[in-house]
Records
---
Amino acid sequence: MTTDGDGLLSSLRVTPLPDDFTPPPFDCGELDLTDYLCDGAAAEDQRVGFSRCYLVTLPDGRLVGYFAVLADSIRLRTKERPKGVRYSTAPALKLGRMGVDRAFRGRNVGTWILDYVVGLARSLAAERVGVRYVTLDALGRAPLVAWYGRYGFVPNEGEVDRQVAVLKFLKLWREGDGPEHRSMRFDILLQEELSPD
Amino acid sequence: MAKPIKATPVVTGKAAVRIQNEIRSGTPNTPKRVETIRRADAVYSTATKGAGTSTR
């Protein structure tokens, strides 16, 4: 459940990163994510067509956060393809970067951005282009992997799954544990939205 | 300069089979998952209709 006790979430606006973007004071607490927006990497990725960056702001223009999205795919390599599956690649929308200013921590803005991106992917899937998943890389900290997991993201990598299974078998697994970098996916379609066999 | 965004790695073995089954049959509709997707639709719809939202 996403709470919006003070009306912050319902007031958020999403605008594309402008070409002439001059970063206001912004610190999301992770240097790499702050630098991506403020040192020009987001604008450069956008300029060369590798991602689109969006600013999340308040009505008065104050910067709350940002996110960058790009086309992606989950590539599958296996010789044991089940009957009926014709493709070795699943189309996806990747949430490449996301940051929320420290001043707005703990107010569910991150979850709101995830909701927006899942909604964007579903809108694309319904009307414009084939998309089945939202993907992301949970970087740096195990709690972040757990946070995405609580939203509904699951890890992609078989090797990571095996590591976790071994840890669980040995009773060495604790909630929130895990490798420091995980590729994860969220299936955006409900079962009733799939075409019948 | 910030690190570049990485490509999603190739999925192999049993994990790949699991995803292929998921593609075909769908992910089970738990109440939490249905609620999350409905909420995402509402957030996107509301934000897109808002006066400040633009897709350029």
---
Amino acid sequence: MFGGLREKLRAARDRLGSSIQAAAVKAEPAEKATVDLPALPVIAPAGSAAPVLSSPTFVDKVRVLITERELIVSEKDVNEALSELEMTLLESDVALPATDAIIDSVEKNLVGRHRKIGESVDTLVVHALKTALLDVLGKGFDLKDYIAKHDRPVKILFTGVNGTGKTTTVAKIGAYLKKEGFTVVIGAGDTYRAGAIEQIGVHAERLGIRIIQHKEGADPSAVLFDAVQYAQSHKIDVVLADTAGRFHNKANLMSQLEKIKRVMKPDLVVYVDEAVAGNDAVTRAAEFDRTVGADAVVLTKADMDSRGGAAISIAHTIGKPLMFLGTGQAYDDIIPFEPEKVVDELLDGGA
Amino acid sequence: MMLDGLSASLKDALKKLAGKSVVDRAAVDELVKDLQRALISSDVNVKLVMELSKAIRTRSLEEEPPKGMNVREHVLRIVYQELVRLVWASTDVRLEPQTILMAGLQGGGKTTTTAKLARYFQKKGMKVGVICADTFRPGAFDQISTLCAKINVPCFGNPQEKDALKITREGLAALKDQELIIVDTQGRHALEADLIREIIDLNLLTKATHRWLVIDAALGQQASEQAKRFHEAIGIDGVIITKMDGTAKGGGAMSAVAETKSGIAFIGSGETIEDLERFDPDGFISRLLGMGDLKALVERANEAINPEDVDVNAMMKGKFTLRDMYKQLEALNKMGPLKQIMGMLPLGNMQLPEGVYDVTSTKMVRYRIIMDSMTPKELDDPALINSSRMQRIAHGAGATPDEVRELLKYYKMMQRTLKGLRGSGGGKFNMQRLMKRFSGMQ
């Protein structure tokens, strides 16, 4: 996961670094010149000597360079590299709006900054990128911590479009929580898709997790209500509520989801999407967030050589933390998402 | 329709060009930039977008517009041609005995599509059988067998068996009386080496006629890479785009098509078993650009290169008869709805009231019918038409004399307009006024 993005980001980082370096080299002769010849202007107030030069920014640059031993990063220095960074992000499935935001942030962070000559360009760039990415990714979400701090049973509702891996994710999170010592019950709320009840049923059986299910075609709200009832009467810690995949542009299905939410009153609504989704990830995350809300996000299929852009897009769009990454077909192929770690790995890993 | 978002942005890009009187380098650059953003935000592979836009840019600037075509039409035609090249043709789907192997990523909709395909071929009168070779996902066999039972298609599978090859071998034997067999497989991605090995073996075992790759419309930049690896493994010869009823634009799937040099076989756009459409590339691109039937327009452009229907020169000389008008209307009819024609005309970006088009295009049909009951003499010399002739014409066309009168009024207006067009100075070709009058006449 994120392997591709990491490589590309490193390349972009090098580019940014080198173009700033190049700018510094260009400034170098000026530095020598000023150091050799007019030792005066430095001492004398620049006010009298400066107007001779047409570009005040140049004077500024030189002054800063000499007096403070710093460079000013200009827009021109980073433009080309930034457009390369833009392409990198787009190629990594970061949606267009999120890409624009990141580029803006990096640019703002770099342009006009004073850089000490001794300070490494790399540090500067990494810092700018890191700030931008962390900004977008926000904080992670610690599920264990959340459950520990809330009244039992903690009810978690899983939503998302078709085929993103909700059912598999429910099973994986069930396995994860069980391993962490919590008791879990699963509500088989996908009563629509043929074979869905059997699918989650087999998972639950394998994992030794209790499951509440009705027949195919039953009202999902009723199933999930029963699951909550069961958890309450049996003092179970967590209810994991699976639902049928639905498209955010189908009003009746979305209102069914609203009804489910009214009936089972979840503590957490978890939005599930796949790491390989492109720009649509933004549209649908926004729509789900708007209609039924989303408290956290799970990103599945992160093992598909994916560049992880969807994580950035979704986080940027709805501003909700990423909780887990699904990384394979086995039950333990799920890892809690820690933004700092991921960003560090992206920018420093293997370097 | 499904591609609304993309259409809107591309349309904007093209509109910008429409406002330009001369297509200069800057205008083309702007169009290409907008086009890039539009395609990228529809998940078309970034590299592909770059190649595409480069080709469009070069051709727009270097190719001489064909005679009879204005610069905007020329650029539009290039955009269209390059986009069509991307999704090339629709995959050939024959109604003959064959085996179809389904391949794709997890959660792409293979199983649902398998059932839809079974239904499609069944409706075409073929004897269809399905093999469930998905031995991994729990409930997969329940899912496909439930769907197959609903449409009475035999479905072979065994949820206890873990060997997909064994199931398929048995399935092929059990379903040997069926004309068409669809093999549903488990979801896999290109990095899962043993699963790729498995599908290679399945392909060899089934000697599949077709190997179709099922791609989720929402799949992003990953699509090309995945398609490439699947293609290397088993030779994909068709792509099925699923989940087109969401808001995803299918750019990833388009890239997959370009990568495999195959075509789009079907489009899945709904949850019921009937929700499967054959793919029509021209329609797809036209919708993509939000411009109706562009293919007809491109053909029209080709006609413009060697015109035969409408003798523009004669018309410009002022010799414009009902017969010319008839030909014009006929040509318009061939080209499709008036709306797109108006869009293609070199009118700049003038705004026409919505609804005008529909009324007028039905009216055009009426006019043609009326002219059909005129004599050749009347067509050549409309001045001949007196009230008794008018009665006769109306009678013959099943129209009222008022309608005939309206037609003649329209003819005179056209004639005047053309004269104005020919003459310099005051009589400027004012389409807007013409349309206003036209809509006033309804």
